[in-house]
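User: Predict the complex.
Assistant: Input components as received:
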Amino acid sequence: MSFLALIARSVRFHGRATASVFAGVALASAVLTGALIMGDSVDYSLRAIALARLGNVHYAMETPNRFFDQALVRKLDARLDTDTAAILHLSGMAVRQEGGGHRAQVNQVQILGVDDGFGSLAGAEALVLGENDVAVNEKLAAALGVVVGDRVSLRVIRPSLMPLDAPLSPRDDDRLASALLAITAVLPDSGAGRFSLVSDQIAPYNAFLDLGRLQRLVDAEGKANMVLAGDGTSATDLDRALRIAWQPEDLGLRWRTDAQGVLQLESDRVFLDEAVAEAALDTAGAVGTLAYLVNSIASNHGTTPYSFAVAGPVLHDLGHDAAVVNAWLAEQLGIGLGDTIRVAYYEVTPANSFVERQRFFTVAEVRSMEAMATERDLVPEFPGLSDVESCRDWSIGMPMEEEALRDEANEAYWHDYRQTPKILVSLEAGHAMWANRFGRYTAVRWPAGTPPPDTLRTTIRNRVDPEAMGLQFVAAREQALQAVDQAIDFGGLFVGISFFLIAAALLLTAVLFVFGIQQRSEEFGILLAVGFRPRHLRRLILAEGAAIAAAGAVAGALGGTVYARLLIAGLRWLWEAAVAHTAIAYHARPVTLVEGAAIGFVCAIIAIAVAGWRHARESAATLLSADFLQAPAHHRGRAHYRARSLAPILGMAAGAGWAAHVLLAAPANAAPSFFGIGAVLLASGLTLWHVMIDALGARPPSRRFSMTTLAIHPIAGRPGRSTAVAGLLACGVFLVLSVASMRQDLAAHAHERSSGTGGFALFAQTTAPIEDPAIVAGDEPNVAVVPLRVHGGDDASCLNLNRGPTPRLLGVDPQVMGALRAFDRRDADESLWRLLEGDHADGVIPALVGDTDTAMWGLKAKVGADNGDVVAYRDEAGNDVSVKLVGTLPMRLSVFQGSVLVSQADFTRLYPSENGFRVFLIDAPDEIRDRVAARLREAFGRSGMDVVSAIERLREFYAVESTYLAMFLALGGMGVTLGSLGMGVVMLRNLLERRGELAMLGAVGFRTRDILRLLVVEHATLLLAAAAIGGGAAAVSMIPAVTVSATKLPLAFEAGMLILIIGCGMASMAVALRLGRPGDYLAALRDE
Amino acid sequence: MNAHAPLLELRQVAKAYETAPAPTVVLKGVDLRVAPGEAVAIVGPSGCGKSTLLNLIGALDRPSGGAILFRGEDILRYSPDDAARFRNREIGFVLQRHHLLPQCTVLENVLVPTLVHPTQGGVRDRAISLLNRVGLAERIDRRPGQLSGGERQRVAVVRALINGPSLLLADEPTGALNEEASDALAALLIELNREHGMALVVVTHSVRFAEAMGRVLVLHDGVLKPKERIE
């Protein structure tokens, strides 16, 4: 008989032991493989979604707030060997209005004007859109409840060529363009219907119109703000082609020549881009000018309201406090050379409010009205100002006083001289007064006789990189796939969630394996007696274990496919919030099955080897001894155990110290430190437990010998076994209590400023920006509004499974937030928001992360950034900007989850064209909260305002977390059940091993209930010790996180979970007692 | 309790186990009377029912028929709790294997029977005295794993004596011992029988041990007979 044959026969002969170990390994391997398959499945699903939303699009250029000429795309197309498409991408609302008055409105709709190239690039070749047609995606159709043939009203936010927050921008009350269109197609969300450039697995609401139709609808004829390109090129080639193809006119630059032949460069955006202005001013004879509308010009003798002023076109030697006034003004104010005038003007703040300033000038020249003709001709055209007949009709972004607008003298001036500036000042003085985040020049002019526009156009084109104005292609497809590749590692996540179950299965496997070989001690002793060497025995034991583990691992890997399908079914039916309601398709790579089996095998073999090692070390005589199983551990003196207990006691002290340090000195690390502290305390607690029970076995005889000591002493008999069972249960208790502690009662502190709601009652978002936040508060008493600016970016919240390199930026007013102490720690001396204030000489923008969950999971997992790290953004001018995460709002969950907050000052500097405000935090007393919400929805429905209670918004995010907690609890609970099963198995084994002892107790007069009491006390002690170790570790490790985030512990729930675990253990004990029949002494005696 | 009755009396005690296809009859009608302080050996081939008979006497099992009287009282009428109390107070058991608790010291093992039913004080001194008597005074703080087989069995004997039983039942007490240890244990049991005046019923295969007892009975074919009659 060969060695292998011996192994085969042993494995077969000890069928029950083999089967139990096989089952344990198979279970561990199945859970492990299933978790890894979940990673495959999520990755596969996200990849499919990413490819579906892009179709054949490989490259894209998007300039949300800058519109370029559609002709630019045609010029690019001519230079490239790939398909291109011009898109006008706007936002809006879709409304279905039924005859009965039932109305459905969907906000945050992507309105996409698409040309002929879009169909083939997005994978919708058959898409043909007529003048009154619209195609919607399945998600929008479902939300509206419409089908092909129905009519839908689209409300589209009109694009403004100039930034609406700019001081001289027209104030158009009707920012929305509406059209009633017939739905001609419902595009599938698995294809072109999902089109989006944002890395998010959640389908957007999409409505597709013919490009020309949309352009006409919003008065943006010929304009686009997105270019798509197919394969066969590169982003570099596209950018190169763009640099060659672009002309200043494509980006809204205009040339104008006045009657005297002065040439002027202007922009549709009022203010010239800095790069363009610099390039233009670098040419010979160029003079930059800055035109502005001042509030008033006054002298000691009079005043005139609302007057055009121009900085720049004056002699170089004009002092910065000197001014040229026109004759009309001199007469009106009764001033002459040397007189002083006061110019009042508005300065626009980052918060979009206007603050009146004033500056005094000395009159250096009084110029005739005829001499001002050139200036009259060259003041740029301002829609809302230049194109109205009466001052009373002026409508621009700046606040204007009605009475001043009715000034008769000024009205007469407007009638006679229109935009003729009343005052000219130096460029330096103009910059000091009127330069703003939108630019420092409204025009650059060249004297007559300078190079013709064509030459200047070429010069400017050569000197300005389109990238500096935000025109840059990105490898959209590559980025999308990278976002998937770098998304949260769901395989790892599910292994983590299933970890306790895997560990429990492996521990149970080890225990079962040990029991199997303990039963065969005599067999091994005989093998040693007949000449086997210890290493032969070790090999035999290991080979048997390996054979069983290999079979179990392979079976488990196959079983893992079932486990993964069950998890996917769970994600579909029970835990859909965990993947943000994303449909996850089952997908298993063969290599994953091999990996799962291999890892399962290795883990099992380690567990088996560690567990079986001791037996292979015993001598033949010991193994053959009938008392082998009853042999006590080798005990030593008290000093030995004292020394051994030192390390775990120090470990526990270190864990407690760590928790105290985190709580007092590093609260930001509260959440990440939790597992570390818990692990140290658990390991130390279990080690101390092991030493204690070992010492119990070695204790000196006591004069007090009682039923209790008789019950507890057997725990010391098998310290390893007792510690294994206690450890399994302690880990389960720790896990379940910790997870339960993470459950939050969102309403508990919702009224407090330091909570995740900031103490605000409502959270509102609009599709269309609102320039004046005061109108949101309205006249309602006790209602206050804090507005925030929004720069769209990646969603780094738990709702996005993809990697998001640039999270959404929110612009806040740190002083307002600081004054409220909103979202701030109550006990902090200084407002957290102050971190956002001040000058940043190094150009690095300080930012706060929306909440600790975003910092820990959203940013770290997705963006790759941690607190203190720098996230790279690109500003509106195309410059790379470093945004440094200087802090985190100190709560686990806030209404800002997934976002990064910067000061409004920094925000408006980075993105001056991001008009108005789109997020509003609203204070309102409870009793009128719902009424205020209803009023806002009604009043700002046209702006696409969604209003939810702040708690409700938290709940949306919390749904993901609570679902993961539920999964963790469910799988952890299965682990605890397995742990309880292990305890039952161990107890049963103990009963079988100790049948003789128990029979003896019966023989000397112990009643059955006495014996049961002994056994219950023994195992309940084990159970309670496990609960104390696990519960203690959980309590201490949770203190920092719970204190920092002001979480109200669900103590009743935790107590319930603890009782459930102990109940499971007791039930398992009861089953073991029933099966072990400890009162059946005769059976034991007969077995002798 | 009848003061003139024998300590133990078995009347036509029968025991059968339900087995297929027919019940297995182990004891057919055992009659036995044991006087206080008497030493009785029961011998017989393996599987003849000797241990079953001891279990019945010790109220660990119930017969299929017949009566067992202890001091004239029918122990078959005892409830399980009464039976446990009876074993604790009146019976001492010594089994082939010692079944000492490995986690307890020698002294503690001896004291185990005193834990379940209230006893008069001084049990600790009595235990030490008994251990001294059997030559284990130096071993009282040791654990069973640190003792030899003979020493363990002597601890088991002391444990059986701790509550001062009237009847000591020993089921092949020397079965797991070598010859020297076996002889020593047999001598000890007999000496203790004489010293303490308790009755001793021993099931044994050892001829020498049996012959050292006052009376030898043979269990054969389910019936108990004096050794002379078999021969």
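The radius of gyration of chain A is 38 Å.
Let me know if you want any component modeled separately.
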